[in-house]
TrEMBL record:
<dbReference type="GO" id="GO:0004807">
    <property type="term" value="F:triose-phosphate isomerase activity"/>
</dbReference>
<dbReference type="Pfam" id="PF00121">
    <property type="entry name" value="TIM"/>
</dbReference>
<dbReference type="GO" id="GO:0006096">
    <property type="term" value="P:glycolytic process"/>
</dbReference>
<comment type="function">
    <text>Involved in the gluconeogenesis. Catalyzes stereospecifically the conversion of dihydroxyacetone phosphate (DHAP) to D-glyceraldehyde-3-phosphate (G3P).</text>
</comment>
<dbReference type="InterPro" id="IPR022896">
    <property type="entry name" value="TrioseP_Isoase_bac/euk"/>
</dbReference>
<protein>
    <recommendedName>
        <fullName>Triosephosphate isomerase</fullName>
        <ecNumber>5.3.1.1</ecNumber>
    </recommendedName>
</protein>
<feature type="binding site">
    <location>
        <position position="175"/>
    </location>
    <ligand>
        <name>substrate</name>
    </ligand>
</feature>
<keyword id="KW-0312">Gluconeogenesis</keyword>
<feature type="active site" description="Proton acceptor">
    <location>
        <position position="169"/>
    </location>
</feature>
<feature type="binding site">
    <location>
        <begin position="235"/>
        <end position="236"/>
    </location>
    <ligand>
        <name>substrate</name>
    </ligand>
</feature>
<dbReference type="InterPro" id="IPR000652">
    <property type="entry name" value="Triosephosphate_isomerase"/>
</dbReference>
<comment type="subunit">
    <text>Homodimer.</text>
</comment>
<feature type="active site" description="Electrophile">
    <location>
        <position position="99"/>
    </location>
</feature>
<dbReference type="InterPro" id="IPR020861">
    <property type="entry name" value="Triosephosphate_isomerase_AS"/>
</dbReference>
<keyword id="KW-0963">Cytoplasm</keyword>
<dbReference type="GO" id="GO:0005829">
    <property type="term" value="C:cytosol"/>
</dbReference>
<keyword id="KW-0324">Glycolysis</keyword>
Amino acid sequence: MSAAIKPLVAGNWKMNGLKAAASELEALIGGYDADLASKVDSMICPPATLVSQFAQTAGGSAVAIGAQDCHVNGSGAHTGDLSAEMFADAGASAIIVGHSERRADHGESNKVVKAKAEAVWAQDLVAIICVGETEGERKSGETLDVIKAQLAGSIPSGATAANSVIAYEPVWAIGTGLTPTADDVAEVHACMREELSKAFGDEGSSMRLLYGGSVKPGNASELMGVANVDGALVGGASLKAADFLGIMAAYK
Ligand SMILES: O=C[C@H](O)COP(=O)(O)O
């Protein structure tokens, strides 16, 4: 937790969810009362096929809708790709870029992630920029160097607390049920805060830093209580409204 930064709990549904899953979004909206909304922001990033529908369902509620990736260009001959402009048009307010599954499955480099963040900003949307070390990198003691290099390479100049959110997701903790210790999370988040403050001044000092990787209702209080952790990027446990609300309850 950082003083004076309103936390964000964002759900990344990844490649999960059909139209009927709107019932979970409706349940989330129903359980996310004004008191909770005053303490923590909430966002769901469904698959691209549901962004428009979810934005309509969430319209007028305090739950924001985001997307999971975008192309670096606004339009053009890129079969199967989707642009930040399209997601803005569909009602998204943020787009995740640089998730480790994109970096691994699609070979996305820091340079590509940076260009995607710029494409997100060009539509006045928020870029949720992900970084994180692999298991091998942690075991060989390279974690902080990897994170620093990813931050330096993936975040464009001009990043502000309003246009960017940074998510630390250790690759080995994603979908595995494993989590780093609170001390390990604190070490990485302190390092990120220092790097961002050096690079972006006051904007870096007040940018939201999310932790992601096997966040569940049972471990949310401990993880969200770590210094410089300003919320969570949640995968599996965001698919059910009850679990997602259980994670946000860490801020009650
Ligand atoms: O974007 C979300 C993360 O990859 C975390 O996924 P997970 O909560 O299923 O471990």
